[in-house]
């Protein structure tokens, strides 16, 4: 890997509803400072930072996801949809995604990727595996201390799944 390899930090769904809102957990709240430090590290180096935002609309309860998870969350333009205070940095890219996995990663020039955010067992794992499928030769890593799952058990299961699929897990 050359020194000119572009590094990208993907911050998955660090939104209020997943931290202390509709679907918040104490584990999610506990990683905010770690994520903030990781973002600062990438921003200080001038690396690419991409924030994904889980984005739903007023019809959420009528959607397939709404039928499976009947808790309205991350409704566009609400406080719960916003990225948690103190995480955003100038020059970042924002992706609004309406599903767990964003299918447009092939439009980016990803060369070396680190992923952090929420939830390990839903959106982090979905996007990590999509990126590995699109870019099989790049390094993709996930910092376990900067992720949280729906439960600690499902967090660990998702980390194990990603590891089996050649995503490097930072402990």
From TrEMBL:
SUPFAM superfamilies assigned: Isochorismatase-like hydrolases
CDD domains reported for this sequence: cysteine_hydrolases
Span of domain Isochorismatase-like: 8-167
Key words, A-Z: Hydrolase, Metal-binding, Pyridine nucleotide biosynthesis
EC annotation from Swiss-Prot or TrEMBL: 3.5.1.19
Source organism, top-level taxon: Bacteria
Pathway(s) annotated for this protein in UniProt: Cofactor biosynthesis; nicotinate biosynthesis; nicotinate from nicotinamide: step 1/1
Molecular functions (GO terms): metal ion binding; nicotinamidase activity
GO biological process, alphabetically ordered: pyridine nucleotide biosynthetic process
Gene3D superfamilies tied to this protein: Isochorismatase-like
InterPro entries membership: Isochorismatase-like_dom (IPR000868), Isochorismatase-like_sf (IPR036380), Isochorismatase_Nicotinamidase (IPR052347)
Top EC class for this record: hydrolase
PANTHER family on file: LD05707P, PYRAZINAMIDASE/NICOTINAMIDASE
Family: Belongs to the isochorismatase family.
Name this polypeptide is given: nicotinamidase
Protein's organism: Coprococcus eutactus
């Amino acid at each position: 890997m050359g020194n000119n390899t572009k590094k990208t930090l993907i911050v998955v769904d660090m939104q209020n509803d997943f931290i202390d809102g509709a679907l918040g957990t104490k584990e999610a709240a506990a990683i905010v400072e770690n994520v903030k430090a990781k973002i600062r590290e990438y921003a200080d180096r001038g690396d690419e930072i991409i924030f994904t935002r889980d984005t739903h609309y007023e019809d959420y309860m009528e959607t397939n996801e709404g039928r499976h998870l009947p808790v309205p969350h991350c409704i566009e333009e609400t406080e719960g949809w916003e990225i948690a205070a103190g995480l955003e940095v100038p020059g970042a890219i924002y992706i609004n995604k309406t599903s767990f996995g964003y299918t447009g990663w092939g439009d980016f020039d990803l060369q070396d990727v680190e992923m952090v955010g929420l939830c390990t067992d839903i959106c982090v794992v979905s996007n990590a595996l999509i990126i590995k499928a699109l870019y099989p030769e790049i390094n993709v890593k996930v910092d376990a201390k900067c992720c949280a799952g729906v439960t600690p058990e499902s967090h660990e299961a998702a980390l194990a799944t990603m590891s089996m699929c050649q995503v490097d897990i930072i402990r």
